[in-house]
User: Fold this.
Amino acid sequence: MATLRDIKNRIKGVKSTQQITKAMKMVAAARLRRAQENVLNARPYARNIWQTLSHLATENDLKTNPFFVQREIKKIACVIVTADRGLCGAFNSNLIKEAVRFIDDERGNNHDRVHLFCVGKKGFDFFSKRNYNVYYKNIGLFSSLKYSESLSITNALLSAYLDGTFDKVVIIYNEFKSIIQQKITIEQFLPITLVREKNVNNNQSNYIFEPDQKSIFEYMLPKHLKAQIWRILLESNASELGARMTAMDNASTNAKELIRTLQLKYNKERQAAITKELLEIVAGANALQAN
Assistant:
């Protein structure tokens, strides 16, 4: 049976943990507001640049541009965006579980078919210790997320795709929905799939292109690819902070309940000890009177 000192020490330890979880919740909440604003600002830009690109693309571009041409898929690059740290609930584990399912389905009996681009330490730690082909890693970027990190990832992907190392690029990440909800998304990055709207080419006569339509298309295409990677990193960062805030709030609530339970147990044990001492004193007094 636990002694009163053991219970008291445990209460003290839980209270210390509760202070840490409350502090982590406050830090995540402060960072989340900025991260959420960044996501909401990046989405319209990424969407509008995609709509512009869709309008500029001609049938010849779709057939000749290397970013649009559909190849025979021999090797796939799978970009897995996780967090650099834990303590954010099932944020990392759920995404890794979905990534494992996707990878196993894609590679089948051909182990060399899928290679991984690990963005975030948690994903790299998991896949590097197991039987997976890790082609590229970028860890420690979410502590201070910068656009330069997005460019390095984009350049690595485009270089490997254009030189024929990979025939398809897929990105798996957590899309930010709300503070308490994230959606695991599997998105094909390359080759670009363009769904042509009806009569889109007929409307192009209403526009005058300067210098020319093809030049603008070729100028906008790299910007679109960079914008998508940057948006995905912002989505994952905001999702991580929301998950951490929720997890730390739940941990603080659980710690409060555990402290209450331990305090009740401590009071019962203390009352039992006092009662036992009183009984021993009374028994001793009765024994002296009997003598």
Summary: The chain has six helices and five strands.
